[in-house]
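new request in #modeling-help
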Amino acid sequence: MEPRKKLSIICFSGDFDKLVAAFTLASGSAAVNYEVNIFFTFWGLNAIKKKKGRVFTGKGFLARFFGFLMGGIDNVPLSRLNFCNISPKLMNYMMRKRNVASLKELIDASIAVGVKLYTCEMSMQILGLTINDFIPEVNKEVLGVAKFMEISQGGDRIFI
Amino acid sequence: MEPRKKLSIICFSGDFDKLVAAFTLASGSAAVNYEVNIFFTFWGLNAIKKKKGRVFTGKGFLARFFGFLMGGIDNVPLSRLNFCNISPKLMNYMMRKRNVASLKELIDASIAVGVKLYTCEMSMQILGLTINDFIPEVNKEVLGVAKFMEISQGGDRIFI
Amino acid sequence: MEPRKKLSIICFSGDFDKLVAAFTLASGSAAVNYEVNIFFTFWGLNAIKKKKGRVFTGKGFLARFFGFLMGGIDNVPLSRLNFCNISPKLMNYMMRKRNVASLKELIDASIAVGVKLYTCEMSMQILGLTINDFIPEVNKEVLGVAKFMEISQGGDRIFI
């Protein structure tokens, strides 16, 4: 029997539109029976952070400063333009109007169809984050590059 | 006989420099006998839109607002900096001066060497676009994720 | 015997955070015995330029203007925000504080573990650069798309 097809996404970006693309690709691929892993790193970690007020999680002033830059899932910027945060809201509105799932729904759908979510050890070290700063669906095993390469071996790897 | 090698590019970006990279990779790979598919999504759709005045295609105010953000092929920004649109013009000028193909020529060359162009169903829904908003060389079959994964199966997938 | 696993990174971006991601992925993969190639193109060429004052290498005014936009390794911007160049410095500081290797160290480590560095012929033509503008560890063979596709064949290709 052929092994199950595999897709692994390195989700580096924290931009609203790229996160929509990442989770659409992830959930759509899992729906056609791919094994899908998302490895969140740097700004991408925002997508799976617990909502906690203004999402200033992480220890220390610098971590908070980066936390501020990073924003959190309810406050992710659009990669192209961001007039006072209007564009992501507008895009969410248009997605709603056109009956396309919102980012929050895409994340929930991805989890529901079995997409596995992993966090990047080094990014968490830099940003002073722990596994408890993320939503509970995130895999407890924090990955380094070697482990990610092992998990994603035999499938495609995409950097978003 | 070995099956033909395959490369599929998810072209998400609408930035001038990234489009140059995408079409250079696409045409160059097709020239050495790769089967090449480009799947245009979000801002990437700009690259293959019909020229139509200021490219305000799509229905409704919001679609037009996004159309404005998106710009169209003659008005794509450079990813790094964009002083009043000087940089893409400058880059086109330098490409011309150094005898490198311009973006328009790279797109034409890609089509000439058999690169297949596909559009993303969901992005078109969000942006209120139809297949008629694109140049005629674009494949009439609009793809969802499942179909894209099927078409690109057995080859490399790259997100730009 | 199974052939050695291979990873090829098209390093298009010159953003500090993306370069950190690229070299972390490269060095980490080489450390677990992957053959790793990085193909530097456009802004990515910055990462491997020789330090030379303000890095205005390349011939002619336009090349110098792009050289200014491009900046050079000591002056690469952060992809998200860049307050007077504070963010890359801050990130370097946090990396140092948390005992994570700095970008310079990541590049050195990548070279030490055998990551091969290649430059893109077309980008160099556009920008008026020659192989002598780069650090000596860069492979003397400048690659076009066809040659890059040949070298990276049989492994994964990632665009950063």
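bot summary: Chain A touches chain C at residues 10, 12, 14, 41-43, 62-63, 65-66, 69-70, 77, 122, 125-128, 144-146, 149-150, 153, 156-159 (CB under 8 Å).
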